[in-house]
Design goal:
alpha/beta; 11 helices; globular
Length: 351
């Protein structure tokens, strides 16, 4: 657990520890809340006042991601209005007519459409958003096999996404660099190292080296490049079992299995505190958990944007009609800056 495990508590405490500090929290109340929550506590003024804070609210209304005549913006605004007016008991009717940036695509056309988008605008500007990790895995495997023609589990050029926050590798590189001396060059290099590899960070595989099966898991040494960090490159040990997992990262049981396996290697250390320290510094215990990043869930997509976004909401019934569903659609729609494609969308939900 990082900090107390309660991020907002830690943030408020940090603000209070300074002098004359102010705090600005920005977000979109129509987007998905944190996992396992119905709303974002950081965007709830009453919760913030509970910290004895004086709270001012400001609503930003100018849209800059899409143009004013955008079909993406038009339909996203209708979803937002439905949330604000509490009219989420019926499936939203989406307007395609009259818009060139908001369209639909059938499943039998999808591979060709994605391939064209890759060729036209690049892989980094194309994303598929699905409702589940299981569905995202199916898309990722299909794209790698049928568009990229990749048969190996992982290849140079593959796009990955970090599946869980990882502080070990950047901190390790920072320590090694500091040990080389205090020079202007070193200080400049230190500034280029990210604080940590964050859940949702995207990376390109530059090189795949040494594969190793250990503790019941499969590891590989990867040289990764992170485009969102000025193409920062780092060599890490990655855990590849999460590539095909239906879970978002290692499950609690798998994490426990990994811990027990690593712990066995340090049984010769008599003191428990020293043994735990060795485990926390173990490269395999700290392996970066990764997933393919051609198709991702909406929670993983939140915060990102791409020119072309393909949205697959999957099979829907009336029981799914909740504010969360409308937030899911709104969040998925607003990831696109140029064109949004509805994949296998029901005809009765389209105007």
């Amino acid at each position: 657990v990082f900090g107390s495990g309660r991020l907002l508590d830690d943030l408020i405490q940090y603000v209070y520890s300074g002098e004359n500090c102010r705090l600005i929290l920005m977000g979109d109340v129509a987007q998905l809340p944190p996992v396992m929550q119905t709303e974002s506590p950081a965007l709830n003024p009453e919760i913030l006042r509970g910290y004895n804070l004086q709270v001012w609210e400001i609503a930003l209304t100018q849209v800059v991601r899409q143009s004013e005549d955008s079909g993406i913006l038009f339909n996203a605004t209708r979803l937002r209005d439905a949330l604000r007016n509490h009219t989420v008991e019926i499936f939203p009717k989406l307007q395609l007519k009259g818009f060139s940036d908001f369209t639909k695509v059938n499943g039998d056309e999808l591979i060709e459409e994605i391939s064209s988008a890759y060729s036209r605008d690049g892989m980094e500007e194309t994303m598929i958003i699905s409702r589940s990790n299981k569905r995202a895995t199916i898309y990722n495997n299909g794209i790698r096999n049928r568009i990229l023609y990749r048969e190996e589990e992982l290849s140079s050029g593959d796009r990955l996404m970090v599946a869980k926050n990882n502080y070990y590798w950047t901190e390790n590189e920072r320590k090694q660099m500091k040990a080389s001396g205090d020079t202007p060059e070193v200080r400049k290099e230190l500034q280029s190292i990210p604080s940590f590899l964050a859940n949702g960070d995207r990376a390109k595989v530059l090189r795949v080296r040494r594969h190793l099966d250990l503790y019941g898991f499969h590891f590989a040494t990867l040289l990764l490049q992170f485009p969102d960090y000025d193409n920062y490159e780092i060599s890490v040990t990655a855990l590849l079992d999460t590539l095909q997992s239906e879970a978002s990262a290692l499950t609690r049981e798998q994490q426990e299995q990994l811990f027990r396996g690593v712990e066995e290697d340090y049984q010769d250390i008599p003191l428990k505190a020293d043994r735990m320290k060795a485990i926390r510094e173990d490269q395999y215990f700290n392996a970066v958990q990764v997933k393919y990043a051609y198709a991702i869930t909406c929670h993983k997509a939140q915060g990102g944007q791409w020119e072309h976004v393909y949205v697959d909401q999957g099979y829907m019934t009336d029981e799914y009609l909740t504010p969360d569903y409308f937030r899911w659609l709104y969040t998925a729609f607003t990831r696109a800056t140029k064109t949004l494609y509805l994949v296998n969308y029901p005809k009765e939900q389209i105007l």
